[in-house]
Amino acid sequence: MVVMSRLLRAGPSTSPLISPRIACRLFSSFTSEITIHSPTSLIPNSINNNNSINSSNAKPLILRIEPHGRNVHWVFLGCPGVGKGTYASRLSKLIGVPHIATGDLVREELASSGPLSSKLAEIVNQGKLVSDEIIVDLLSRRLETGEAKGEAGFILDGFPRTVRQAEILEGVIDIDLVINLKLREEALLAKCLGRRICSECGGNYNVACIDIKGDDGSPGLYMAPLLPPPGCASKLITRSDDREEVVKERLRIYNEMTRPVEEFYQKRGKLLQFDLPGGIPESWPKLLQALNLDDQEDGQSAAA
Ligand SMILES: [Zn+2]
């Protein structure tokens, strides 16, 4: 992993020390690939009338899931506040692979008062993106720590955010699938401004009730608030970067820098577009369906 870490730091412009294939094998050794779903069944043309999975990919997507998730190298894309963390975390528990959120890595570094923390605080408070170098450094350290503990496979959340980061990642790890979560901008803004955290237990809540009526054939969207239990209600705080001007700046930067990342993966036939039909109760079952994992959850609850 030291080699891979050096590779990651070096970026795509320098000549790699080892081939991407070897780096990939280093990273996911002992796995044998099992194709458990046919490509055509992965992306239904439509799930129901209210929510369709768009796919204009040139190549069909093939979803491969190794027992215990060893072969899962997935990436979650989506605007800030869309709920990447929530869905990535649920999926990671379901298929047994770590959920690695670069936002968490940044926050941990910020809290650590380490060498990068004051530099990071300045960048984050302005709603700016942390540089590729810092993110790649934090991510390499996290992957190394994980591998030392015997982790295999991962779901990345918040990385890659730029085409350059995607190129670095593509050079060392074979990403199987990129899930792009999509939500209308007005809903995104309301959702971000409604976010609250319990200052005592760290619980995440949302006080916004989003109810957008459908018009001209576009489906409506309803997201219920996620209200705190009585014990947390008086201790709610708003994250300093959930202010309207910061949220809008994040969305602007996202559109400018991350949209090309969607195109990057679309060209490689790895992008799954998923329009969120609402909150978790509406979206979770449809996401599992889109990933052909609905039977996996059924199996789990049946076994429980
Ligand atoms: Zn609490």
UniProtKB/TrEMBL annotation:
* NCBIfam families documented for this protein: adk
Q: Which UniProt keywords apply?
A: Kinase, Nucleotide-binding, Transferase
EC number of the protein: 2.7.4.3
Provenance organism: Carnegiea gigantea
Family matches, as Gene3D superfamilies: P-loop containing nucleotide triphosphate hydrolases
GO molecular-function terms, A-Z: AMP kinase activity; ATP binding
Q: What top-level branch of life does the organism fall under?
A: Eukaryota
Identification of the protein by name = adenylate kinase
Name the protein family. Belongs to the adenylate kinase family.
**What PANTHER family would the database entry show?**
NUCLEOTIDE KINASE (PTHR23359)
Self-association or partners: how does it assemble?
Monomer.
Instruction: Show the catalytic activity.
Output: AMP + ATP = 2 ADP
InterPro entries associated with the record:
Adenyl_kin_sub (IPR006259), Adenylat/UMP-CMP_kin (IPR000850), Adenylat_kinase_CS (IPR033690), P-loop_NTPase (IPR027417)
Name the enzyme's class: transferase
Instruction: Fetch the SUPFAM superfamilies from UniProt.
Output: P-loop containing nucleoside triphosphate hydrolases
